Amino acid sequence: MDENKQAHSDAPVDAPALERRDFLKTAGLLGVGGVAGAAHGKFGLAPVMPAQAQAAAPNPAPPRMAETPWWPSKWGANDEAGASNHITPEKVLEAVRSIRDGRIYKLGRDYEAAMPLFGTRAFALRIPGAPTGGPFGENKLVYNDEFLATEIGQVGTQFDGLGHIGIQMGRDGDKSEMRFYNGVTGAEMLDANGLKKNGVEKIKPLFTRGHLVDIQAVRGRMLDAGEEISLADVRAALQRQNMQESDIRPGDAIFFHTGWGSLWMKNNDRYNSGEPGIGLEVARWVIERDLCLTGADTWAVEVVPNPDKNLAFVVHAELQTKHGIHNHENLVFDQLLADRKYQFVYIFAPTPIKGATGSSGCPIAVT
Amino acid sequence: MDENKQAHSDAPVDAPALERRDFLKTAGLLGVGGVAGAAHGKFGLAPVMPAQAQAAAPNPAPPRMAETPWWPSKWGANDEAGASNHITPEKVLEAVRSIRDGRIYKLGRDYEAAMPLFGTRAFALRIPGAPTGGPFGENKLVYNDEFLATEIGQVGTQFDGLGHIGIQMGRDGDKSEMRFYNGVTGAEMLDANGLKKNGVEKIKPLFTRGHLVDIQAVRGRMLDAGEEISLADVRAALQRQNMQESDIRPGDAIFFHTGWGSLWMKNNDRYNSGEPGIGLEVARWVIERDLCLTGADTWAVEVVPNPDKNLAFVVHAELQTKHGIHNHENLVFDQLLADRKYQFVYIFAPTPIKGATGSSGCPIAVT
Amino acid sequence: MDENKQAHSDAPVDAPALERRDFLKTAGLLGVGGVAGAAHGKFGLAPVMPAQAQAAAPNPAPPRMAETPWWPSKWGANDEAGASNHITPEKVLEAVRSIRDGRIYKLGRDYEAAMPLFGTRAFALRIPGAPTGGPFGENKLVYNDEFLATEIGQVGTQFDGLGHIGIQMGRDGDKSEMRFYNGVTGAEMLDANGLKKNGVEKIKPLFTRGHLVDIQAVRGRMLDAGEEISLADVRAALQRQNMQESDIRPGDAIFFHTGWGSLWMKNNDRYNSGEPGIGLEVARWVIERDLCLTGADTWAVEVVPNPDKNLAFVVHAELQTKHGIHNHENLVFDQLLADRKYQFVYIFAPTPIKGATGSSGCPIAVT
Amino acid sequence: MDENKQAHSDAPVDAPALERRDFLKTAGLLGVGGVAGAAHGKFGLAPVMPAQAQAAAPNPAPPRMAETPWWPSKWGANDEAGASNHITPEKVLEAVRSIRDGRIYKLGRDYEAAMPLFGTRAFALRIPGAPTGGPFGENKLVYNDEFLATEIGQVGTQFDGLGHIGIQMGRDGDKSEMRFYNGVTGAEMLDANGLKKNGVEKIKPLFTRGHLVDIQAVRGRMLDAGEEISLADVRAALQRQNMQESDIRPGDAIFFHTGWGSLWMKNNDRYNSGEPGIGLEVARWVIERDLCLTGADTWAVEVVPNPDKNLAFVVHAELQTKHGIHNHENLVFDQLLADRKYQFVYIFAPTPIKGATGSSGCPIAVT
Asked: Is the pLDDT of residue B112 over 50?
């Protein structure tokens, strides 16, 4: 038995795991000490390698920054809609009143096979038949469908649902101690055919005021991978744009422009290798201001790798898992910036695929 | 050689074709005389069976109702956006001004494997890994994706793109004589990996006034399959709802409630077997009023089978292919009707999957 | 916290879980007392409902019949090939010597969308483009591909790999206590992109003597769902077929004909509702005789529901998980039986999809 | 109208087409003059660019080398099994008699996402749920499935079916003049949900003598892309291996080792950029010898680009479309060569996916 166990843990890590590790390496998540670092970080915790994390000997240490249960949610112990609960009729009317010129800007990118994809995600679109059916009738009608196979809610411009991100409490690999938004466990939520709780179909349509901060303009250049947007950056951008911080109100959405999106389909390898973004400082400001959603022209909105090498996508956990605040990735702000439109109405109704972890679609800004 | 050809045309039709034929049969498209009918219709054309339509001996007759080329489009010979061109800033502001109470209604249904699917379309959602990745970092983050394989833009609540429907001109099976919106040929448009023209990503976000007519209320019952909504029905509904026909303006959207949607996931077989809907009479009224979009609580908006048994989905061709007028299927109006909200702002930005024939998503009504 | 937990466990079970439960119900797995039964069975264990099994309150009882660790395998602690290790050159030559007339029989069925599928599995085949590419060159070559989305190794005629079936030891939902062939844990084996151990690509090509027992002929009728094939049945069939039990040697394959396969695509609902098959008695005989593989004209080879209502697919676990003995489902023996060919060479090389749980393909019998 | 047509043909070629063209370029198919060449070739035909080939103005010239109808097949006008008809009981027994030592060699590669894929083909494997189901019963059984989305029969080690390759006769894009094996037209064969004729399920299981020629050994180096294997090469290899050409008999299979396979997953870009292989000279020898199948350690078996730049995959058309001779790609011969086993029994039963264009699986060699 012991001998057998030994054999398993000594076995070389196979290709699928390697692929992910390779990705994390290129994404800057595997530095000197792996995802969790050999240097043990400023909190002095033991390092956790991803291979170990999924292997036979689980890490007995509790996850950092998850000491206090974050549930029940302020929207109730059964809530699955998170910060979309902000979108009340009053909030909608407030947004409507801010519309001035009736222009619509698409904030989303086209979905296509050549777009940068995280890790091993795939995107394959096919037109069956061409035409798919017909001709039918004396009017000789023909029709075309498209067949798509993909990680639909987690490719391209994507809205993270509340079942996307969780924290492994307790023992690694124990679904009954894996916690998601509102404390829902993996055991309660996970199913091979779709999430049983926190599915993206539970999110209410978003229709709220959006505020765009141009961090690239503040810095005078595109930010680099691993470069964190500070609260000072945000405030400098607001000032530069003649905006008041106090005008960013509960239930509003905040968007960060870094310039990183200029790499999209121009240099996918670099685009995927990491990204600039917000860290815990700005995340806490977002929480304090009680916002509804964050968004950016990057694939994760948050800084990757995190300056604290022991942390992986910690802003996701802080905003989404603990506070139900939504996140919209791979957005485009170019035309808004060209027109100096920093405030607008952000409209997005997630595609209600039952049990999905996120949503594709085309968010729009109306000015 | 001749002998060989004979052999082919005598061969029994195989299963995939049978499946489609079976569907068409249940959908009422194959009556006494097949899709095109044995009675030869009022135009005296020869009948066309679907199996023949795809077989060696093509029908030499030109398609009915396609005598006159419908291109170039009034939006220009290169246009691929169709009636979404109606959505100008002025049109958006007109819609915004109509918002009174800030309530949002979801017009779309949840997407799930149990929903009724047309023909052989499929919908399979899977959660890889559960969790898909992690735990990563000392914060022990885990994440979930979803993998979806489906006719994405043609399942559930669906918006038809301009590459979905076409007409086979010339010889059956000849892509250079197969015509779509703006006269684009199959040869120009079709590709195994996505449409080269008329892809749904070309449609502009829709933000316009919507008008809902409750035909079920006028009739005092759910309409039945094959039952055509007349213009008189539409006018009676407007009158009953205290609405003026003249208030339906160019670029607006019109929605038809038939009650057929009550069968959704209650009786999928009946739901798929046909449907009530508009015919050519109302379609021509929609064209005259220069509307932007039609929608209904049915899977095709138009009456199936058509009262003229020789015609197959002819309203699709009339509105979409010839006039670029969009179509939104499998909608839900129950809450709007309960609240007697017959006018609202219809907002929908198609998911811009490059080269797709349609779009999933969640259209909303704002009142 | 407690309140919150309460809320979760009180929440209604959602649709995906219901679908599976519905399936299990039609498959006879959910009788009076659910999968594990209200009667508590002869071992007096508490009942376990599938919904509970995946819910917040895991069943603390150890799994029945898994008391003794079954690892390491007799083929070594690192083995991932199981009983395919029987296929040595000597074994191949023994099989070759038994070939008499050079006839090949296909034991596999065609794969198509209309075949019966277990639970929520899907099968969607599409021809992209039609043609997919071309014409290319002056020779005007065109080509077609097929795009397939499916549970490839677990649909239609299917060979179970060693990562397909496991036993939840320890706490429900704890991957580090979920055990597969050779004691490999879920934590070691499971990955979103394919199994890291026990993938079907590790199985050696099978080329061995096969023995077919016609249980339908012994009983004089098609066996019914839930009807267990006894060892006496097997022996009666051997006698009827003039075969010696002693001629079934280590490494050979055994096949059971029940007649259930006659329902294939004739009555899929009944076919899926359960099946006749072997139980633990015959399974233990298979283990004693040290065979390589079991097969049948049913979707699981074993009796479903098990006469002991508390057990679910226990023969799978006994043969595959504990002894590495392979299993081939949804086979066809009609022509072999018509020709009274009860002994043949069974040849099957699993499709080596890295990290897959099973394999499609076409096993053959050579006589 | 004319103006409109002009607009279409002037429109820039969009991305999907570009992707394919890019691929063909890297594959050497687009040289100075495109697929069909600017030099007009030795037959003086006009050049055909792929974009034109699919565009509005079809090439009116008949395809080169398709002057004479190649149908009906020598196996009858209705035959869909092609050269697999060679596999008679006598042929099987002949093969069986050649087995000496009972060793089995896998000729197929593992299928995985990292393998080189032609053009835009995709391969995505996911494990739903992990586990996919359970625990069920008091025995706490769990199970795993895999979900696969891919061009199943045209990725990795692949066997070409008779519906894979055809020739566009008549007008480009006209399915009624697109011809496949046995003269079947595109109109008769193509369907969105699977081929209606010439599906791979019609092929009989292959069990025949295989002959391997090591061209790399003859040349003393790996052959390069675009390097054609001559008949003299084949004869030199036979001589070097002490084999008689006359021993290669009707219905046998011939395999070519070029060394190109050493690039597999080592240098996918180069692997995909072209390949060494046979040309029309050896193809005609294969036809004369009345063989059953060709195979190689390359992705097409034939030389790419063809030395005659106007021809695209012409060996495919010559062998498969016109003569029904099968083709097996991306094979591995390393162990056979190491053991100097140049003759063996080749066994492969295509996975009978109804209407598929090819087959994955694991061909084996038995010595």
From this structure: yes
Query: Could you tell me the pTM of the whole model?
Result: 0.89
Other residues' Cβ atoms within 10 Å of the Cβ of residue B245: 13
A106 falls within a domain? yes
Residue B135 placed within a domain:
no
pLDDT at D26 over 70: no
**H helices within chain C, ranges in order?**
2-10, 15-26, 50-53, 89-97, 186-189, 215-219, 231-240, 268-272, 280-288, 314-316, 322-323, 334-338
- Among A123, A131, A191, beta carbon nearest to D129: A191
Which residue among D14, D126, D149 sits closest to B196, beta carbon to beta carbon?
D14
Overall domain count for chain A: 1
The residues, ordered by sequence, that sit 6+ positions from A314 with a Cβ below 8 Å of its Cβ are A65, A280, A302, A306, A308, B137, B139, B141
Residue A348, Cα to own-chain centre: how many angstroms? 15
> What residues in D contact B196, CB-CB < 8 Å?
13-14, 16-17
Q: Do D138 and C349 touch (CB under 8 A)?
A: no
Nearest to A317 among B45, B141, B175 (CB): B141
> Is the pLDDT assigned to residue D15 strictly greater than 90?
no
Q: Beta-strand (E) ranges in B181-238?
A: 206-214, 228-229
pLDDT band at residue A65 under the 50/70/90 scheme: confident
Whether A58 shows a pLDDT value over 80: the answer reads no
Q: Can you give the pLDDT at residue A59?
A: 67
Range of the domain at C243: 66-110+153-366
User: What distance in Å separates the CA atoms of residue B249 and residue A143, rounded to the nearest whole number?
Assistant: 30
- Within a domain: B277: yes
Q: Identify the pLDDT of residue A41.
A: 27
Q: What percent of chain A has pLDDT over 90?
A: 82
Read off the pLDDT of each residue in C25-39 and give the average, rounded to a whole number: 35
Asked if residue D57 has pLDDT above 60, the reply is: no
Nearest CA in chain D to A148: D149
CATH of residue A233: 3.50.30.50
* Inter-chain touch D102–C93, beta carbons under 8 Å: yes
Contact A60, A45 (CB under 8 A): no
* Cβ distance of B130 and A191 shorter than 8 Å: yes
Enter the tokens of residue A76.
Answer: 């109730």
Count other C-beta atoms under 10 Å from residue C213's C-beta: 27
Residues of chain D contacting A174 with CB distance shorter than 8 Å: none
